Amino acid sequence: MVVGGVPGHVVSFAVAPSGALSLTGAPPVTVDGLSAVGMASVDPNGPYLRVATYIGNTLSNFVIGPDGALTPLGPTRVELGPIRPGYTRDGR
Questions:
Q1: Could you report the per-residue pLDDT of 62-90, keeping only the tens digit for each?
Q2: CA–CA dist 18, 62 (Å, integer)
Q3: Which positions ≥6 away from 92 have C-beta within 8 Å?
C-alpha cells in the first residue's frame, strides 16, 4: 500500500488464499519524490514493485523479498506526471 505524504512510503501486506490481507512486519520504505498520489504495480514476471508519483515525477523501484521486505533499487526520473506503471507481456 502506498501512503502519500512528505515523504511518502510503502507498507507491505501478505495476501492469504482467501484474499485477506495482513501486515508482513517488514519496515515501510520511503518513496522518492513527493508522493501525494502514489500508484504501485507489481511486475508479473519478477519480484519487483514500481511506484509512480504523479506530483513528484518519479518512478521508485524496489525488489520484493520472500518475507515481503522491499529493497530500494533507486528512482527513475520521468516527465509529465506519471500514472500507475504498466507492463508488456514480456515484463518491460
A1: 999 988 888 999 888 887 766 667 777 76
A2: 26
A3: none
